[in-house]
């Protein structure tokens, strides 16, 4: 991104914040309806340790959920790429999980596992795992058939074909799925915290919403956005480092 585009983006953002501040003060909008940007900053400065500790808890649970999603998603994708029968049997169940709202599953997880970290990790994993399964399966099965035939003519084993052909071909698809799954893991963690947690950004949002402290809710929403953006950019940086032959289009 050029310096001009970055400068223009910051100027537009600054102008929007100034306009927001002026309109709220001019119309005397109640703070519980729409707080001014200055009130949002003051709310953060009143309790920075509380907000940042909640952000750390959400980040930690999101990382765990994302890691579990990677392990499960890659394992299922390999099995689906190797076995057409397994793919046909598993896809209906995966589609059911995909279309079922996580917010509807979360209360059941609380009943089954209690108010522990496990339901939150499961919620995070449920949202993150599906794009990994789909993209990795596509990456493993989209190899040119001629390459596979050449390896087989050389008496290469299925393991050699997997490690030398399929996995290198799959890496761009893997990191592409990460860019979708990583922010999704943050969303899943927040959903789990809304319902069954006593810490984290999601829990704090429910507390301050009940108190009509809209400025604090804005702070927590912004921190959640920053966390999702951070996860996304880490995946982009990792892709540039580990898959340098692929151009990342953003």
TrEMBL record:
<keyword id="KW-1003">Cell membrane</keyword>
<feature type="domain" description="ABC transmembrane type-1">
    <location>
        <begin position="55"/>
        <end position="235"/>
    </location>
</feature>
<protein>
    <recommendedName>
        <fullName>ABC transmembrane type-1 domain-containing protein</fullName>
    </recommendedName>
</protein>
<comment type="similarity">
    <text>Belongs to the binding-protein-dependent transport system permease family.</text>
</comment>
<feature type="transmembrane region" description="Helical">
    <location>
        <begin position="173"/>
        <end position="195"/>
    </location>
</feature>
<dbReference type="InterPro" id="IPR035906">
    <property type="entry name" value="MetI-like_sf"/>
</dbReference>
<dbReference type="InterPro" id="IPR000515">
    <property type="entry name" value="MetI-like"/>
</dbReference>
<keyword id="KW-0813">Transport</keyword>
<feature type="transmembrane region" description="Helical">
    <location>
        <begin position="119"/>
        <end position="143"/>
    </location>
</feature>
<dbReference type="GO" id="GO:0005886">
    <property type="term" value="C:plasma membrane"/>
</dbReference>
<keyword id="KW-0472">Membrane</keyword>
<keyword id="KW-1133">Transmembrane helix</keyword>
<feature type="transmembrane region" description="Helical">
    <location>
        <begin position="61"/>
        <end position="81"/>
    </location>
</feature>
<feature type="transmembrane region" description="Helical">
    <location>
        <begin position="215"/>
        <end position="238"/>
    </location>
</feature>
<keyword id="KW-0812">Transmembrane</keyword>
<feature type="transmembrane region" description="Helical">
    <location>
        <begin position="9"/>
        <end position="28"/>
    </location>
</feature>
<dbReference type="GO" id="GO:0055085">
    <property type="term" value="P:transmembrane transport"/>
</dbReference>
<dbReference type="Pfam" id="PF00528">
    <property type="entry name" value="BPD_transp_1"/>
</dbReference>
<feature type="transmembrane region" description="Helical">
    <location>
        <begin position="93"/>
        <end position="113"/>
    </location>
</feature>
């Amino acid at each position: 991104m050029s310096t001009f585009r970055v400068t223009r983006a910051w100027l537009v953002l600054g102008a929007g914040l100034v306009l927001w501040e002026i309109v709220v003060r001019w119309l005397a909008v109640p703070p519980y309806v729409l707080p001014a940007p200055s009130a949002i900053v003051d709310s953060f400065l009143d309790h920075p340790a509380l907000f940042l500790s909640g952000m750390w808890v959400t980040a930690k649970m999101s990382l765990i959920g994302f890691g579990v999603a990677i392990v499960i998603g890659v394992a299922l994708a390999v099995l689906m790429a190797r076995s057409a029968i397994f793919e046909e049997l598993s896809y209906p169940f995966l589609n059911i999980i995909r279309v079922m709202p996580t917010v509807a599953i979360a209360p059941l997880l609380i009943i089954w596992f209690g108010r522990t970290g496990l339901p939150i990790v499961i919620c995070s994993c449920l949202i993150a795992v599906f794009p990994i399964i789909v993209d990795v399966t596509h990456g493993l099965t989209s190899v040119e058939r001629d390459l596979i035939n050449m390896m087989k003519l050389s008496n290469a084993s299925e393991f050699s074909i997997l490690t030398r052909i399929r996995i290198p071909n799959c890496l761009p698809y893997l990191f592409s799925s990460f860019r979708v799954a990583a922010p999704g893991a943050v969303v899943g963690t927040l959903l789990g915290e809304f319902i069954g947690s006593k810490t984290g950004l999601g829990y704090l949002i429910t507390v301050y919403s009940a108190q009509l402290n809209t400025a604090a809710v804005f702070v927590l929403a912004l921190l959640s956005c920053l966390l999702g953006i951070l996860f996304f950019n880490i995946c982009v940086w990792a892709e540039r480092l580990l898959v340098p032959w692929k151009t990342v289009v953003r």
